[in-house]
């Protein structure tokens, strides 16, 4: 017996020595990150002093393997755990690095004499301060000072660094490391440089997803015509202008009666999109007299955001469209406008067109401010705004970044976005993870699918060339972002065409350039190049290809994970296949709603508006109404709705007519079942309500 004990002790000692050896000896190290090139903006200077104290942050690999499983467990209608929402603490606990991973990295640091190591509150990273000489020994590297030619600021960085192979899987990235992205010195030109590196492009105008507003001639006559029709309780003019009465008839929405104070509908606004009371009053007086004048949303103004104005000339076409569509559906329930970023950033000439989504996510989930994933911790310097933001003209927000200061709404509608190919892969995926985490907590995110069919806007309205498409031949379809994320619901657009009524089937929206908009307008749709088809959508997409193959050549590839600022390389994905769309990508959109000839008041004037940015607040408001009914019978909010809808397409009105042209093609066709033009179809409120009320 004693001999066995001694043998065991000797074996364990040998094991510990072997493990320690692998943590110490360079033979067991592997390159973890290596820079391929340096921008001319950065000049390599002297070695960092050996005694200089470096603040080191080790981003730990997140436990994301079961993320999709967790979300589907509470959102799939066949799951016994449907509706059992998670708390924010449960989310942090589930996705934090494993104790094994944390302990392994700590042991490595201890072997090298690193002390004073602390772990972040969200468990995502380890931090310590140490002399440069000790950090160089730890990482088998050399640190140099890199000077920013634009700002004069200096950063410590290395060309590559190493970690032990046995713990490499536990480490996402380490700073200071190879990254040279931060705009040191605060010069706005830094954002301009990053914008060029990212290739982010402007779309039609400053408000890329702003509604395709058009002032109809003789709008006063049209308004009088609509008022007369309304007085007669007639729906005969819905092919001319979509009013609240038309929307209620299209989707069988009765007047609301409930208003739980915990269920205020959320609407996201940015980019100088202010709402004003005078326009709301004009709209209520003309179209919804049951809503009293003076009714207005609550404002959540994040990091210096400004939500409202009393100057009619500053009224935002997007904000007024969103509110004037949502109020008739949710009233007497309230609406909360979530406006992000200070005036300096909202008017920034070097705008990176990421819209401030991260600013919102920081404010409604404090852990996101320091969340580590895909080689990024927190907001991306040079892409996202940086606070405090002191500006001599007073347009900046001087406070610190607002983290976790608000409880998220149950539903939030987004009418903003861009093209997937213009946003760094790591940036997209880190943000997409956050939508999943908040979905676990019962938040529904709905995004507009885009207004240019399978492409971006062509020149001169967009910057993706004469076709708005990708690839060397400018013919590859150009999907949108962030609605490409599998954990959000994206909304396409339909239309009541002239000569048809609200009692006829709608069709996919399509207005050719000049009739009446300056560009082609059709429902954004297609397939992602970043995300694969999620499980909940797989059957629907497979059926579409089996029964309605579009006949275009295709490729089957997804962009690999790469650190910022790497963009999806669609040309490389397509290779020599000749394909013009990705056969294995997440399908866009999920659903649809009316998005053309919408009656609005903006700037004191009546006009008609359109865009999937109209469709989205309609569908979002309906989901908010359903939550209202569930809360009234002590059930949870519906949260991530896609699995329920894909399992029950019969609760939507299938759209089987129309296309979404682009890239010198007709795009995709609206067909029976799901399609990449109108998704599963438009809402049928009574059927949707019955279904969601039947779920736990």
Automatic annotation (TrEMBL):
<keyword id="KW-0865">Zymogen</keyword>
<feature type="binding site">
    <location>
        <position position="655"/>
    </location>
    <ligand>
        <name>Ca(2+)</name>
    </ligand>
</feature>
<feature type="binding site">
    <location>
        <position position="675"/>
    </location>
    <ligand>
        <name>Ca(2+)</name>
    </ligand>
</feature>
<keyword id="KW-0378">Hydrolase</keyword>
<dbReference type="GO" id="GO:0046872">
    <property type="term" value="F:metal ion binding"/>
</dbReference>
<keyword id="KW-0645">Protease</keyword>
<dbReference type="InterPro" id="IPR015366">
    <property type="entry name" value="S53_propep"/>
</dbReference>
<keyword id="KW-0106">Calcium</keyword>
<dbReference type="GO" id="GO:0004252">
    <property type="term" value="F:serine-type endopeptidase activity"/>
</dbReference>
<feature type="binding site">
    <location>
        <position position="673"/>
    </location>
    <ligand>
        <name>Ca(2+)</name>
    </ligand>
</feature>
<dbReference type="InterPro" id="IPR030400">
    <property type="entry name" value="Sedolisin_dom"/>
</dbReference>
<feature type="domain" description="Peptidase S53">
    <location>
        <begin position="241"/>
        <end position="695"/>
    </location>
</feature>
<feature type="signal peptide">
    <location>
        <begin position="1"/>
        <end position="19"/>
    </location>
</feature>
<keyword id="KW-0479">Metal-binding</keyword>
<dbReference type="GO" id="GO:0005576">
    <property type="term" value="C:extracellular region"/>
</dbReference>
<feature type="active site" description="Charge relay system">
    <location>
        <position position="613"/>
    </location>
</feature>
<dbReference type="Pfam" id="PF09286">
    <property type="entry name" value="Pro-kuma_activ"/>
</dbReference>
<feature type="active site" description="Charge relay system">
    <location>
        <position position="318"/>
    </location>
</feature>
<dbReference type="GO" id="GO:0008240">
    <property type="term" value="F:tripeptidyl-peptidase activity"/>
</dbReference>
<keyword id="KW-0720">Serine protease</keyword>
<dbReference type="GO" id="GO:0006508">
    <property type="term" value="P:proteolysis"/>
</dbReference>
<feature type="active site" description="Charge relay system">
    <location>
        <position position="322"/>
    </location>
</feature>
<keyword id="KW-0732">Signal</keyword>
<feature type="binding site">
    <location>
        <position position="654"/>
    </location>
    <ligand>
        <name>Ca(2+)</name>
    </ligand>
</feature>
<dbReference type="InterPro" id="IPR050819">
    <property type="entry name" value="Tripeptidyl-peptidase_I"/>
</dbReference>
<dbReference type="InterPro" id="IPR036852">
    <property type="entry name" value="Peptidase_S8/S53_dom_sf"/>
</dbReference>
<protein>
    <recommendedName>
        <fullName>Peptidase S53 domain-containing protein</fullName>
    </recommendedName>
</protein>
């Amino acid at each position: 017996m004693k001999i066995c004990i001694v043998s065991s002790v000797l074996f364990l000692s040998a094991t510990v020595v072997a493990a320690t050896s692998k943590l110490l000896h360079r033979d067991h190290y592997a390159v973890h990150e290596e820079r391929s090139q340096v921008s001319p903006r950065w000049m390599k200077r002297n070695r960092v002093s050996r005694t200089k104290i470096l603040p080191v942050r080790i981003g730990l690999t997140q436990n994301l393997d079961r993320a999709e499983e967790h979300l589907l467990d509470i959102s799939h209608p066949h799951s016994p755990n449907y509706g059992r929402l998670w708390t924010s603490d449960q989310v942090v606990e589930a996705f934090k690095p494993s104790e094994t991973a944390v302990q392994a990295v700590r042991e490595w640091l201890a072997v090298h004499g690193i002390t004073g190591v602390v772990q972040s509150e969200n468990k995502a990273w380890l931090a310590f301060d140490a002399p440069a000489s000790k950090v160089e020994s730890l990482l088998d590297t050399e640190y140099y000072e890199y000077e920013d030619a634009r700002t004069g600021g200096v950063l410590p960085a290395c060309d590559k660094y190493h970690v032990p192979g046995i713990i490499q899987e536990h480490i996402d990235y380490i700073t200071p490391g190879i990254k040279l992205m931060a705009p040191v010195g605060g010069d706005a030109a830094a954002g301009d440089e990053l914008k060029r590196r990212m290739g982010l492009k402007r779309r039609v105008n400053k408000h890329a997803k702003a509604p395709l507003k058009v002032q109809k001639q003789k709008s006063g006559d049209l308004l009088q015509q609509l008022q007369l029709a309304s007085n007669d309780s007639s729906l005969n003019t819905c092919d001319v202008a979509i009013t609240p009465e038309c929307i209620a008839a299209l989707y069988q929405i009765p007047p609301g009666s409930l208003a739980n104070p915990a269920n205020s509908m959320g609407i996201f606004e940015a980019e100088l999109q202010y709402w004003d009371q005078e326009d709301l009053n004009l709209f209520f007086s003309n179209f919804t007299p049951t809503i009293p004048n003076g009714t207005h949303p609550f404002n959540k103004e994040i990091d210096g955001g400004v939500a409202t104005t009393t100057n009619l000339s500053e009224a935002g076409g997007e904000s007024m469209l969103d509110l004037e569509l949502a109020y008739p559906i949710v009233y007497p329930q309230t609406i909360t406008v979530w406006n992000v970023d200070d005036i300096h950033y909202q008017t920034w000439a070097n705008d990176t067109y990421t819209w401030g989504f991260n600013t919102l996510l920081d404010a409604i989930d404090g852990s996101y401010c320091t969340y580590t994933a895909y080689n990024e911790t927190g907001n991306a310097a040079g892409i996202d705004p940086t606070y405090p933001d002191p500006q001599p003209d007073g347009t900046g927000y001087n406070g610190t970044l607002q983290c976790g200061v608000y409880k998220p709404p149950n539903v939030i509608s987004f009418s903003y976005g861009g093209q997937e190919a213009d946003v760094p892969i790591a940036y997209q995926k880190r943000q997409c993870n956050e939508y999943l985490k908040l979905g676990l907590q019962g938040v529904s995110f709905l995004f507009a699918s885009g207004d240019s069919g399978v492409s971006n806007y062509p020149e001169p309205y967009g910057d993706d060339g004469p076709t708005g498409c990708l690839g060397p031949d400018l013919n590859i379809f150009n999907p949108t972002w962030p609605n490409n994320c599998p954990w959000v619901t994206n909304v396409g657009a339909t239309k009541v065409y002239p000569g048809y009524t609200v009692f006829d089937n709608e069709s996919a929206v399509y207005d050719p350039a000049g009739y009446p908009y300056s560009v082609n307008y059709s429902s954004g749709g297609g397939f992602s190049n970043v995300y694969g088809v999620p499980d909940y959508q797989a059957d629907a997409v497979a059926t579409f290809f089996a029964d309605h193959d579009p006949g275009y050549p295709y490729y089957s590839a997804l962009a690999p994970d790469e650190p910022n600022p790497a963009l999806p390389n669609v040309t490389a994905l397509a290779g020599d296949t000749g394909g013009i769309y990705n056969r294995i990508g997440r399908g866009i959109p999920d659903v649809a709603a009316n998005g053309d000839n919408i009656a609005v008041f903006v700037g004191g004037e009546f006009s008609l508006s359109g865009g999937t940015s109209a469709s989205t607040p309609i569908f979002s408001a309906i989901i908010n109404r359903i939550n209202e009914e569930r809360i009234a019978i002590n059930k949870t909010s519906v949260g991530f709705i896609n699995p329920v809808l894909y399992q029950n397409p019969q609760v939507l009105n299938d759209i089987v007519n129309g296309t979404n042209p682009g890239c010198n093609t007709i795009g995709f066709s609206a067909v029976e079942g799901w399609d990449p033009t109108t998704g599963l179809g438009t809402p049928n409120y009574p059927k949707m309500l019955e279904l969601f009320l039947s779920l736990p």
